[in-house]
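User: Here's a chain of 342 residues. Predict its fold as tokens.
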Amino acid sequence: MSEEETKFEDDISNLVNDIFEREEEEGKKQLEKVIRINLLGNVNTGKSTTINALIGKDKLHTHVNPGETVSVTEVPHPENNNVLFVDTPGLKDMDEKNSAKALKKLKSADVVLYFLNAEGVSLGNEELNTLNKISRRNKNIIVVLNKIDGIEQNDISLLKRYVEKTIEDRYKVIPISAITGENVEELNAIILEYLSKEGKDILFAKSMKTKSASAYKWIYAASISAGAIGALPVPGSDIAPLTTLQVSLIVKLSLLYDKPITKDATTKIVVSTIAGGLGQTVFRQGVKFFPGIGMIIGASVAGTVTFGLGQAVKYALENDIEITPDQLKEITDSFSTKTKEN
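Assistant: Prediction complete.
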């Protein structure tokens, strides 16, 4: 190894050391924060059922008869009291006291889920006025178009576009079925996007039913960002952007699965990915195992390597495999083998 190559690896190692401690500290601080997700909508729109679908437990009681939720209630996640769901009666069922209480709590909400019943969407002046009241107190609104299992599949996209046009594309709209689970992971991803801006995405992801969906969201986002870099850095170039992306991704995944990765292990992985042979293996096998991923994330070496690296780390964490450059190489090699077998 030349002196220039040795210095290149040393530079990456030093940078990883600095980034790792910062990312780990910030990630752990996230887990001490509080998330509030407020649920609003008329009766029989499936607010409680949706939260139960997200967390995978029947924590919020769903009633046989619509309109039986009669007060504004803060319900903690069954496994994490720092994640609170603020359940409300149907808007038309609220008395003046509860209505004022629900609107007041919107100011402290991280995300507001506004529910509509896809089987009979009502978006008249009353609903639009309610949305305006909400938006004056909180901008992080997601319109949840629930119960799409009750309508024809071909009508879902038309219904979604109708709602988007009616609300003038001011808020994100997601059609779901809390009963069948259709698009619930997509709703999870949108919530995660909002919470990422608040520095609370790790806390939320750890509390949800499917960790894999959140992990993939982070891997995909990091790969998109890495795609703007283009090729892997070479000696003498700026190593900070890609190194930061990869270290941050590894730390977030380890916190998500509650399986700590040491700074030393992270350093070896990132050095081997950027300056060693692991990056070449990940790129080659990643392109084979994830056909078309290069086009999706910008057709760049850095983007594809980051995507493949994230998937390999995710697989290792999910399967209790020690995370080392050699193990990750074996995992990416196995991805290619599985592709041939299929």
